[in-house]
## 1
Amino acid sequence: MTSASVAVIGGGVIGASAAYHLAARGWRDVLLLDRGAGPGEGSTGRATGGFRAQYATPINVRLSLLSREKLGCFEAETGVDPGYQAAGYLWLAANASELATLRAGQAVQHAEGLHEAVEVGCGDIARLNPALRLDEVAGGVYCPTDGFIRPLQMLQGYLDACRRLGVRIEWGVEVLGLSRRADGTIAAIQTSRGPVGVGAAVNAAGAWAAVVAGWAGWELPVVALRRQVAVTAPSDLLPHTMPMTIYAGDGFHLRVRDGRVLLLWPTPGVPGHPYDVRVEPEWIAAVTAKAHARVPVLRRASIDSAACWGGLYEVSPDKHAVLGPVPGCNNLFLVNGSSGHGVMHAPALGQLLAEIMSDGTAKTLDPTPLRPSRFVEGDLNPVPELL
Ligand SMILES: Cc1cc2nc3c(=O)[nH]c(=O)nc-3n(C[C@H](O)[C@H](O)[C@H](O)COP(=O)(O)OP(=O)(O)OC[C@H]3O[C@@H](n4cnc5c(N)ncnc54)[C@H](O)[C@@H]3O)c2cc1C
């Protein structure tokens, strides 16, 4: 039987960040496994690449600020440009109640040091994004240091840095189960290439994380949720510097990437088929109608059906990440449930996980709100209403 000091299950951006940060802290014999044929076959390759620190809870703001700091030295650390572009995030409220929720989130952000996040009136909004129709907009919030990142470049950076530090990376290997000792700890992982003896394992299986946790007897409440993306044909109707623009009421948002406009609007997945990522023509028609009503210039853009795609969020009950050892199986570590924020938080989560696994706790910031046991304790983070 082959062996590893630690096996990271899942080679998306979070698993790669975890493996890199472990190796950088001196862990040797780290093994990163993914059943995909190569990088980016999971959610990381489907992400649109938004980055924001405008969240409504202190822990999410802190994760973003730590990630932003790490993005600043990402290229020096890994050799790859993470593509951070401070184009801003502009949230729009349709009425006083939505605006009050955005303001409450901003109070949390200011308390955490995100002072550049500001409230904006319709005049500011017209300046920040002149393409918008404003008759249904009551106001909004804006943060200029939010913006964009390149998910696949971040994944590549961590994989390159992993290789330089001696991490073994194996594609096309499916993890099929775990062998546990009488005390509940993991002795080995079962894979499609045979068993691997391990000192510890990391569950970085994204939208499939509940399956892995289940092998250790832990019911991890992380579910897959489809997100669809409508993509226009290339055009210069909107500038690439346009901020990510989000309608707080229904979550419709848009951005420009590589000369195309991406349109998103969260809807439920396919009932009974949580891993189905098909893009539905009716959804494309509905999101396009929203875009035409709110951003009239897009009436001149055509949707490129072949370029539209679907992918999976990995959603926890309080829409916050799950980080730390599994209760009752203390050498299986979870870094799951980022609920659609996993690329932007990957730098922070990888570092915090490595601290927890090396020192028993994270010192850079207090990860208590993310502990796995919060679900059984009934001590969930406040579920964000809009942010
Ligand atoms: C449409 C869309 C837009 C998004 N936009 C953003 C955004 O703007 N900003 C942002 O931060 N996030 C965004 N996300 C969310 C982001 O993609 C995820 O949060 C993030 O990629 C999670 O990273 P991960 O490494 O945990 O998951 P993944 O990238 O899915 O990696 C998990 C890996 O585990 C592997 N795996 C699973 N089970 C096994 C097994 N048994 N054996 C071996 N391998 C296994 C899979 O093959 C997969 O590669 C978006 C997601 C979607 C779908």
## 2
Amino acid sequence: MLTQNTAFTTNEKRYMDNPFVGIATFLKAPFLDDIDALDANIAVLGMPYDMGTAVRSGARYAPRAVREASTWNCYAYNGWYSPVDDTVYMDENWKVVDLGDVDVIHTEYDQSFLNLEAAVRKVLDRGAIPFVIGGDHAITAPILKAFDRYEDLCIIHLDAHLDYRKETAGVLYGQGNPMRRASEMSHVGQMVQIGMRGIGSSLPEDWADAKERGNIILDMGKIRKNGMDWVLAQIPKAKNYYVTLDIDVLDQSLVPGCGSPQPYGMYYEEIVAIMRKVCELGDVVGFDAVEVCPPYDLNQQTALYQANLMLDMMSFIWKSKKDRGLL
Ligand SMILES: [Mn+2]
């Protein structure tokens, strides 16, 4: 039986298992090295890949950094009380496991992406929800390929940038292309792109293409003008959602350690509100959290935000299933 990654003790009555003790899996959840034996609700996978980066490299170190940061919240693994929501999230029947990392071969993006896609397929085959820690945002395209068992998958894209570049000097799978690649997949339906602002890789024609496709694009001007209640009302109801969280959706003052920081960004609690709303509307069947860049981080600040938002997302998924009697 898998148990949480715990410390050695000679005195069970005085057992502590502090966050700084032990091997840093996500939330100090059990590590499972046999993906074919996966039996859990949430499967965390690391994709230590930053070959898609055109700005600041270093996201390859994020899976370790985010896991390390997540140990701060390791007690949440067995349930945690939110005084803000007056709710206890997650319980002992909610299984989170950490599958470790996908193998990345330097310079070989195609094989690295095949490894990632295959791992995500196996997680889905086993009935778990993949939570992938990037990596730069290029990784979302191969992840989404693995979701072709779904139809009309609604994508919630939280990001400072549209990431809709058709190609850049022939590059199709960089960090500026994943949402364009997603739009080309027949199983991808509506796309909701939230937090756009500032300088990005996408050209005016890419924006025009995204709008013509019918993507719901909520840029920061609209968000600040209309407020969060309006933002939440723009999210369409769907059966299945995939959520991709580029940490640069948060304001650059909050996330110094990300690949392409931008001012005029969103606050943590606004992202939480969006994730909560999506979980109320339908099933989140997959999630990735990308673009933490530890070499530029300060005091783990960016990694802590990413780890916290991952915990929030798995908690809201738990609540959504619990409220519907599915657990
Ligand atoms: Mn992005």
## 3
Amino acid sequence: MTDAMVRLDAVNRVFRMGDVSVPVLHDVTLDVGSGECVAVVGPSGSGKSSLMNLVGLLDRPTSGRILVEGVDTGRLSPDRCAVLRNRRIGFVFQSYNLLGRHSALDNVQLPLLYAKVGRVERRRRAEAALESVGLAHRADHLPSRLSGGEQQRVAIARALVTDPGIVLADEPTGALDSNTGTEILALFRNLNRAGRTLLIITHDLGVAARCGRIVRLHDGRIASDQANTAPGLVRVPA
Ligand SMILES: Nc1ncnc2c1ncn2[C@@H]1O[C@H](COP(=O)(O)OP(=O)(O)O)[C@@H](O)[C@H]1O
Ligand SMILES: [Mg+2]
């Protein structure tokens, strides 16, 4: 076992396109400790999303190991991997990825449905998650009736509802105006203060500046990995 929430050990990812091999990640070694807020930055095409897909167990490395809470995920069957992903990893995407025909509350309940949590408990936990992102009053709304920032809050509630060990966010403010983006970052920061482990993928250095550690990817390699000694202090308005 290990203290790391997530550990990547000499991870390589090569995509195959017909006869052509496209190496996308090279020898990536990275530990994310419990309670950290880590930004992964790098230009478009540097491999950030590919890295997130690997850490999130949506993809498998070509070589190297990925451990989640000490479990070597390469040894797990696809079904076991899916269970680990569902229970221990929360996802937030740039485009929110909410189901348009379902209310905010139903969207938030979805991971609990996959986890076979009973109906009453599901509802209770989804309401609490919506409350924690300040959206209890929007529970019955369809995504199309919510602003972008509200939709992203619903997505964050959905990521939190299983009480995951780590939340992965890929460009979570990329589709938002700057004020709304700042609010979402403040929400992440409050989650991290409350002990939540976060991995935030972004090409925006202003976003990274609010994280406690900044990992830079360049052409699929880690170019630097530094503590950020003065992460910006932003608070969610009460
Ligand atoms: N499924 C795939 N098949 C082939 N190439 C891919 C695939 N996914 C990503 N890539 C390539 O990998 C590189 C990194 O992509 P990505 O991880 O999306 O970068 P980023 O998120 O930093 O913009 C790009 O050159 C992209 O074209
Ligand atoms: Mg990307």
## 4
Amino acid sequence: MEITKSVAEFLTSRPPLTDPAFTKWGVTLLGMLTLAQFTRKTIEFLTPYLLPSRLNKFKHTLQNQSNKEKPWAVVTGSTDGIGKGFALELAAQGFNLILIGRNPDKLANLEKELRAVAADCQTATYVSDASKIQEKTTQDFSHLVRLIGSKPVTVLVNNVGRSTAKLANLTELEDQDIVDVININDVYPTLLTKQLLPTLVSNSPSLILNVGSMAGDHGFPFMTVYSGTKAYNKAWSRGLSVEMKMLEHKIQVQHLLVGSVNSGSNKVSVSITSPTSRVFARSALKVTTTRKIVAPYFWHALQMRIFEALPEWVIDTMLIGMIGQIKANIGSKEE
Ligand SMILES: NC(=O)c1ccc[n+]([C@@H]2O[C@H](COP(=O)([O-])OP(=O)(O)OC[C@H]3O[C@@H](n4cnc5c(N)ncnc54)[C@H](OP(=O)(O)O)[C@@H]3O)[C@@H](O)[C@H]2O)c1
């Protein structure tokens, strides 16, 4: 109250333009506006990490009086890395799981691991090679839809994704590799989501998490195809989120911005800026805010905020240094 009164007094005390005191008043006003803007942005930035998890919203099937069934989640690329992290966390947090992967043995092992995490976790598996999506057509997903049947699926995690087989410039990449990456990262999640939307609508409120990458925002050299696919995912995800709102479907669609995570294909040392896949998945399930695009792991969000504040030439210099270093490390391992 006191602050509001002081601000009101200050604003009404504006000296005439010709008065030398006007400059001091103007500078003070500018300072106040900058501080207010900084405070607003800081609160906006921190809010998703401070609020409690909203995951319970997607466990509403447990409240269904006639049939208190555990909710089901579908996870793609579930057999390793972040996808496996999601499967383990969702099981621990009370979901049954439909696990999608290309390797039946890894899927069977994961089912056993999930039982160790939550003995009552029911699972079903669906074998599918995401790179082959265009050969098989969407008809292929009709098997998955049949497998889902009347299971109350309320969460879909579109996690499957990879970069091109080598860190190389565009002309060095195999054509098939480029097509595979676009299929896995973009065509597959788009067609899968199209097939599962009616199920998610009938089980709403429901949640779709689309796993993106910092590369989609900045366009990483020697990872240009991968970066492009993640930029598609971000725009598609955002558009779909608004589309759901326009159609009055209670489906929350969220694009997850991901920095470095220790995973099957990214064997970096675990650190505060490179969490384990499970820690990352836990953060993502906690930060199910209504934001359409979010970096769910706080330290990634901070890195991204700092990155965004830098001039483009500094970002380019950092990317050249970072990718150059990775290329040099790969080169020395191959020798
Ligand atoms: N890790 C990071 O630092 C990082 C950073 C930014 C974004 N991301 C994103 O996070 C997601 C997961 O990455 P990750 O690092 O966890 O990868 P990962 O450890 O290599 O795991 C990838 C998962 O996708 C599956 N997969 C790969 N190709 C497939 C195909 N053709 N068909 C079906 N399944 C396939 C793998 O199956 P197998 O087990 O059979 O190999 C595995 O289950 C990706 O979308 C990636 O772009 C990761």
